[in-house]
Automatic annotation (TrEMBL):
It comes from Allobacillus salarius. The lineage of its organism: Bacteria, Bacillati, Bacillota, Bacilli, Bacillales. Transmembrane segments: none annotated. One of its GO terms (molecular function) is iron-sulfur cluster binding. This is SUF system NifU family Fe-S cluster assembly protein. Belongs to the NifU family. One of its GO terms (biological process) is iron-sulfur cluster assembly. PANTHER family: IRON-SULFUR CLUSTER ASSEMBLY ENZYME NIFU HOMOLOG (PTHR10093). Gene3D superfamilies: 3.90.1010.10.
Length: 149
């Protein structure tokens, strides 16, 4: 597949998550982790909720508003971390941050296929002003886990 076709496919994946977000909503459980974060430079805002039991992210949902990158990233993040051990979710967040900084990921250490649709956001690294948009939901997840522990 040529670079242009791959770039077009990635854009389509991002727009699909933006227009049809996965896990948008709230968790009706008093024991869930709730984190509110925003990006004041562009106005992106996210309210993230996660239900963690026995070290596993049982559910993750979000509400918010923002650009297509921010909302698509939140959709992808909630979809990717649900069902995963907290340690794996945090590792994915670390890998995602490295990806946003344009760093090469050692495929022997971490299989990018485990990130699912999140890989579609790799191109954001070319636009430094958009990196905070892409990482907002991931930073909210990290903050929620830190506060819970």
């Amino acid at each position: 597949m040529s670079f242009n076709n791959l770039d077009t496919l990635y854009r389509q994946v991002i727009m699909d998550h933006y227009k049809n977000p996965r896990n948008r909503g709230t968790i009706e459980d008093e024991g869930s982790i709730t984190v509110e974060m925003n990006n004041p430079t562009c106005g992106d805002r996210i309210d993230l909720q996660m239900k963690v039991e026995d070290g596993i992210v049982q559910d993750a949902k979000f509400e918010g508003e923002g650009c297509s990158i921010s909302m698509a990233s939140a959709s992808m993040m909630t979809q990717t971390v649900t069902g995963k051990p907290v340690e794996d979710a945090l590792k994915m967040s670390e890998i995602f941050s490295e990806m946003m900084l344009g760093k090469d990921i050692d495929e022997k250490e971490f299989n990018l296929d485990d990130m699912g649709d999140v890989q579609a956001l790799q191109g954001v690294a070319k636009f430094p002003a958009r990196i905070k948009c892409a990482t907002l939901a991931w930073k909210a997840m990290e903050k929620g886990v830190d506060e819970e522990q």
